[in-house]
Amino acid sequence: MAIISDIQEEQRAPERKPSKASPSSKEYTFTAKIDRRNPLDLVEKTLEFIARESDFFKRESSEREVFALARRFRDKERKKEEEERKKRRQEEEERRKKEEAEKKAEAELRGEVIKDETEEEENGLKNPNKGNGLDLEKYSWTQSLQEINVVVHVPPGTKSSFVVCEIKKNHLKVGLKGQPPIIDGELLQSIKPDDCYWSIEDQSAVSILLTKHNQMEWWKCLVKGDPEIDTHKVEPEPSKLSELDSEMRRTVEKMMFDQRQKQLGLPTSEEIEKEEMLKKLMSEHPEMDFSRAKRK
């Protein structure tokens, strides 16, 4: 859309004699259309209009005042976006709590007992969160086969200059300057430091992306010594699975199949393959004694 700007000069109905009218009694109307693809063009024309019809830019403070105005609008938009995100998070949390309450009520009617998702299992392992990681007191982490995402909560208003984040091949340190580190320990497995980065989100959390070196295994914890998850219960998102190449997808599907089989006490894909090979040998060589052959 092209920008069309018209500047019209109007004079108030003279209340006094025209000869005594002063320039300050004049009113100027500025009309324009905005092209959303290039809004700065409208800003430029507006400033040109102000410069032509007033002495605003002759003042030494004019530049600071314009910057302050732009900053005020920017902060207003950021605050609006933050409020919208907060509202969405609250709605999502309320929806989740409602669904959990409904599931619990239905289970009670059937005489069943639902375990808390964060409940520790008998073997000392914890159930993974929805991102196949774990939510801890000071930070949470999620994972795919390729990456680890860490979110460290910090006081509201924290700027990036206050953050200490050291990402090394086998070590991660995160915290705030002048304070004890929030995370400081040896990673469960090695990562690729050159493919990792961090950023501040909403000035209230440090978001860290770690790229795994070995992209064929699930991590049971982020830092050695932290609580561990049961990797047998990891469930990759179907949408993410479809984005993998064919070889990687076959590997992940095999891992998922083996995990389900172990949970059900059934043979894994490798054990099934060995069993089929043994049956084939038995049919081809009936004269041989396979009674001592191990089936698992």
Flag low-confidence runs.
1-23
Element order: H for helix, E for strand:
EEHHEEEEEEEEHHH
Rg from alpha-carbon coordinates: 32 Å
Overall mean pLDDT score?
Answer: 79
Q: Tell the overall outline.
A: elongated
Number of helix segments? 5
Give the N-to-C terminal Cα separation: 71 Å
**Strand residues, percent:** 15-25%
Largest sheet: 5 strands, antiparallel
Range of helix content: 25-40%
Oligomer: single chain
Could you explain how this protein is built, in words?
It is built from five helices and ten strands, in the order E-E-H-H-E-E-E-E-E-E-E-E-H-H-H. By secondary structure, it is of the alpha+beta class. A five-stranded antiparallel beta sheet has the order 3-4-5-10-9, with no helix packed on it. The protein has a three-stranded antiparallel beta sheet with strand order 6-7-8, with no helix packed on it. The chain is elongated. The chain starts with a strand and ends in a 12-residue tail after the last helix.
